[in-house]
Amino acid sequence: MKKIFAVASFTAVLLASCTPKTSTPTAATGPATSTAEQIAQGKTIFENSCGRCHKLPDPTSHNSVQWVGIMNSMAPKAKLTDEQHQWVYDYIVSVKK
Ligand code: HEC
């Protein structure tokens, strides 16, 4: 059941990302790009993948712009897919806010 929900919500995100943003929800509480579920996955991936070669970095040690560059060099090292790269980035940035 949980898996079906995950697939369904992921599909919804894919569809949403292809749709022009005509009506923006007024109460935008969460991060813009990822669902809470994707951020939770990003956290798990971060904890499992990013402490292998060095100490697990502190998400608050760099700003969101610096993290773009760091993730661009670290995601291939951690062998992340593009999706995982995005989720880990969104998790890191979510910690700062
Ligand atoms: C295969 C080994 C490896 C993995 C996996 C890895 N790193 Fe690194 N990381 C390094 C090395 C080596 C350095 C130092 C040299 C460099 O900056 O390229 C580094 C440096 C860093 C730095 C310091 C960069 C700076 O400019 O201060 C951060 C932050 C970082 N990694 C984050 C991450 C994150 C986040 C992940 C998970 C997506 C990750 N690393 C996964 C090898 C790895």
Automatic annotation (TrEMBL):
Higher taxonomy: Bacteria, Pseudomonadati, Bacteroidota, Flavobacteriia, Flavobacteriales
Signal peptide: 1-23
Cross-referenced InterPro entries: Cyt_c-like_dom, Cyt_c-like_dom_sf
Positions of the Cytochrome c domain: 37-97
Alphabetical list of Gene3D superfamilies matching this protein: Cytochrome c-like domain (1.10.760.10)
Protein name per Swiss-Prot or TrEMBL: Cytochrome c domain-containing protein
Coiled-coil segments: none
Originating organism: Chryseobacterium defluvii
UniProt keywords, alphabetically: Heme, Iron, Metal-binding, Signal
Molecular-function annotations in GO: electron transfer activity; heme binding; metal ion binding
